[in-house]
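All the exercises in this workshop are built on plain-text protein records. Instead of coordinates, the fold is spelled out as a row of discrete tokens. Once this layout is familiar, the rest of the handout is easier to follow. The record below serves as our worked example for the rest of this section.
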Amino acid sequence: MTKSFGETNYSLEGKRPPHFAGVWYEANPEQLNTQLSEYLKNADNEMALHPIEPSFADNQACTPNIVAAIVPHAAYYYSGQTAAFAYEKLNGLKVDRIFLLGPSHYTAFRGCALPTDSIFATPLGDLQVDQEVIKELCHFPSFKQMPDVHTQEHALELQLPLIRKIFGDVRIVPITVGNLSDETDIRQVGRILKRYMHKGDLVIVSSDFTHYGPRYDFQPFKDNIPQNIRKLDEDAFKCLGQPDLKAFLDFHDRTHDTICGFYPCAVLLSMLPAQAHASLLSYHTSRELLDDPDNNSVSYMAIVFSCPESSEGWGSATEATGESAGALTAADGKKLLEIARLALRSHVLQTAKPADYSKLLSPHQQALFNQHRGVFVTLFKHHVGENPVSERKDGKNLRGCIGYIWPVKSLLESVCDNVVSAATRDHRFDPVSADELKDLQIEVSVLTPPHGVKSWQDIKLGQDGIVMHKHGLQAVFLPSVASEFGWDLPETLTQLSIKAGCGPDGWKKDTVFDVFQVQSFEESE
């Protein structure tokens, strides 16, 4: 049956119009629908013969339990047919909501840009933005509403007509991903997004791959250009297919491959369920359509990520609450403290540290300490009255406290990083000197992954660590803080709010609270 398309009012307030319609793809609804139908039919016919791209190494067959896709975003003349392979594979899935991630081509910024518009229009019909998720994400420091970024960006818009055609009026969460500083930053963004993922959600990343030639200032080779471009793309796909974030970051550092959606792809890798694998459905380059005398070329891949049938995909209750995090024994805690002391002395005294602290671990501890865990390291100094920051009931004086709330690095790395940071980067104190080392006591607190609570009244004082998020400001207290200072829950939240920079009453309204549990290990006095 032929679908009829009515007139669309793009000028309504709160609605993002399709800025690139009529330029990068058809603006006429009937013509656009016909074009996409042809692309999808071609893809269906080709996949009936070759379900996956036959010539790429390490390519795995796709299972029905698809959780994510990577799709190109060039003008439809160049990449529309490749994109259609992914959408044809997604056709028929029951999808409640789509998290749409893409890069910024026109504006440089840190973190993630969220829209202010509640509707993203397409020539085929409107798509509603999930305003509740956008509002929640705005509380986290890595996310900020930046309407200008979304107004001029094409990466997400090029996905919208295909999304509308395949899924109808599905809700979307459009996120433009800017620069992220390192693996920790990437994993933190992924963790925050993943907490909102549920069964029935889908992630679509909008990304082209290698941009080769003088137009893109990327010409690492001058001979066998098509073959070498393909080799770069194959190597990138191998990292995605495992999936392996560290390998993908190492690949990018080594090759400087011009993947425009590098950061969105990296965030996806940090989010994917452990059992996910990638299938490459189609691979093409712009050179196949337009032989550029300057050898400019852009690569396009249609990739889907699927999980075994037994997997829950997004929204696993165990992963969301952190119940999978293993408990540590007293011997494990003693080893963590030993390593923390070595790392602290090595940094303060500027001595050479052991080449690899993992060599100090038993085989069991090597596996355990390789798990990603949140960690706080606290330094105390036993000279009452020296430290005006601390007014603890136990008489200990705080000398520094820094940590990772989210499980963004291995337990071993997190302890080494944060003992040095507690000694040198806590803005309340001067850096620890060599003379102080003998007077310091180290406490290592290992966290379960934070998870949200509906109300501050659900916080269990003394049992839960508390993270407060409000409009991009954030502060954290470990579970022991309230009892150490003799505070009840309202006073604890008041102090936490002041620490976050929200004022004493900031916690009472429009605030997100996370809680976590802790295993703490402390050096003997």
Notes: The CA atoms of residues 178 and 264 lie 8 Å apart. The first helix runs from residue 29 to 49. The first strand starts at residue 15 and ends at 16. Confidence is low (pLDDT under 50) at residues 317-324.
